Amino acid sequence: MAEGGNGPCSPIKWAVSVSTRSRSCGRDGEDTVLFKQADLPAVAFPTIADIRRQGKLCDVTLKVGDQRFSAHRVILAATIPYFNAMFTHDMVEANMSEITMEGIEPSALEALVNFSYTGSVTIDRYNAQSLLIAASFLHLNSVRDACCTFFKDRLHISNCVSVRTFADQYMCADLVEAANKFIHCHFKQVTLTDDFLCLPKDDVLHIISKDELNVCSEEEVFEAVLDWIRHRESVRKGDIAELMVQVRLPLLTPPYLSDRVATENIIKNSLQCRDLLDEARDYLLMPERRTLLQTFKTRPRCCTDIPGVVYAIGGLTPSGSSLNTTEMYDPVTGKWAVTESMVTTRSRVGTAVMNGKLYAIGGYNGSDRLCTVEMFDPATRAWKMVGPMNCKRSALGAAAVGGKLLVSGGYDGISSLNSVEIYDVKTDKWVLVAPMKCHRSASGMAVLEGEIYCCGGHDGLSIFDSVECYDCTLGTWRDVPPMRSKRCRLGVATLKGKLYAIGGYDGAVFQRTVERYDTETGKWTDVAPMNIKRSRVAVAATYGKLFAIGGYDGQTKLSSTEMYDPDLNKWVFVAPMIAHEGGVGVGIVPNCESSMD
Q1: Percent of the chain whose predicted confidence (pLDDT) is above 90
Q2: Sign of the Cα pseudo-torsion (145, 146, 148, 153, in order)
Q3: Mean pLDDT within 352-357
């Protein structure tokens, strides 16, 4: 061959001695190097998409109605499970050049075919439903999940029922659960919508049976059932007895039962409803028989997953003076802002939220323990005094359930207390009820499954690991399994059906440990500890997270806030308070409604 021709090159001669320190051993002991172009898919797919736009090399056409979309089998099979099964399992369509698709909107199919080339799809209010339907049909779960998230983020009074129905139809379990929670949290507003009134009976039964309904009183459930019946009374009046079984008539007041329920014609004309009414009257009028009449109908409703704003109130200045300052934290924006101050300065204050209003109960004003109570109404942005307690109390427990406030224990300036009082907003009066078994100051209190749990605390001599539970129906206290650690000045809250005891002081150590109680197992278990020690910590639960706010670490009054994610079992710092440090009282004031915007 002539010199400089295009013939085969001579093999290159390699040196015999080669360092293998950074080389791998290949065929016949030879050293090799693996080369990978990590961005090849990212570079190649836009080119393939461009080839498709030019109509080149396409080997299949998808037909919907009178519209056709050309594509490459190998791309569809690689990115969409439905087509993978079609083209790789000897189905009749595997060799067809044109395939007719049924039950999918053309625009949705086009968007998902484009997604198979680009990995992106735009979801909006106009295409979310059709995209979810098409993605479900094509087993494209990533897009289906993205559509579900789109709906979750835009749940509203006006659409939550229809979203729930739609999600149930396409077996989107997480979206059904999210819609259910929204309906529970906004029950009264939802029942006023046409969507609710048009629900089938079984769906109404499912909704009104839940403990988690956020209602001011059982009256709202009763009225919702009547409204649903009357919407199509001629065909629905026969359903009244089945629905009334789920209305907790024993939770209604005797006057309401007599003046409203008993006089309603639909009730009077149903023998079963009259029996239910008599059962409720027996329960209310014969307290001595209540232990024999315990059913789910005597258990108060309790919604514990209400999204809302965290309010922090009272506490101490760096010099030790009590504060009347109030600030609020929005978990959505992650910011604190100062808002309207209380009428009275209060530290070691009890807090609870009832009917969307925040109550500041008792506490210490710098010179005396307080029996006074004030209430903040978010609608008017103002605090006002309400009926005082019978006893002075600071470092007390406070909770709201079934349209009533309950406070327990605390310190009156002389000794720790075991007395318990309940506030009725209709009478503006506090009434002493059955005392706790222990004198408890600086305990933690929360509501779980319609019952009130009081955890830890001290009596001036001993710090407790014990826990007592108040049955609102029987009006009695009982012991439940003790915590794993002794704790006073702890925070307690309920999240996703579990009770959490957080931080505190055991007499020797300021704690950052956290434990969780499960009513099904009757056991406390340790979960992830907070990042720092917190005694006098305030705890609140909202948006599926726990917030541990302020406190004292043994040396410093704290303004920092931590958030716990139960799914990750992890605490992370979020924005600190801007107007408080040390011990505050906190409460969650529910949002009026989520926005569609």
Answers
A1: 72
A2: positive
A3: 91
Residues ≥6 apart with Cβ < 8 Å to 161: 179, 183, 190, 193, 195, 196, 199
111 touches 125 (CB < 8 A): no
Q: Residue 289 has what pLDDT?
A: 58
Question: Average of pLDDT values for 512-520?
Answer: 95
* Band of residue 28 on the pLDDT scale cut at 50, 70, 90: low
Strand 67-71 relative to strand 60-64: parallel, antiparallel, unpaired?
Answer: antiparallel
Nearest to 309 by CA among 334, 291, 284: 334
What is the Cα–Cα distance from 329 to 327, expressed in whole angstroms? 7
Is there a contact between 373 and 362 (Cβ–Cβ < 8 Å)? yes
| C-alpha triplet 78, 82, 83: angle, nearest 5° | 50
pTM here is: 0.66
| Residue 111 confidence class, pLDDT cut points 50, 70, 90 | very high
| Per-residue model confidence as pLDDT tens digits over 431-484 | 999 999 999 999 999 998 888 999 999 999 999 999 999 988 788 999 999 999
What is the CATH code of the structural domain delimited by 207-298? Answer: 1.25.40.420
Confidence band, pLDDT 50/70/90 cuts, at residue 520:
confident
Cα four-point dihedral sign 468, 471, 476, 479:
negative
CATH classification (class only), 40-154: alpha beta
The domains of the chain are located at: 40-154, 207-298, 308-590
N-to-C CA span, the chain: 78
- Extract the tokens encoding 155: 């749940």
Residues 6+ apart with CB under 8 A from 494: 304, 446, 447, 448, 500, 541
Domain 308-590: which topology?
Neuraminidase (2.120.10)
Q: Which amino acid is at 186?
A: H
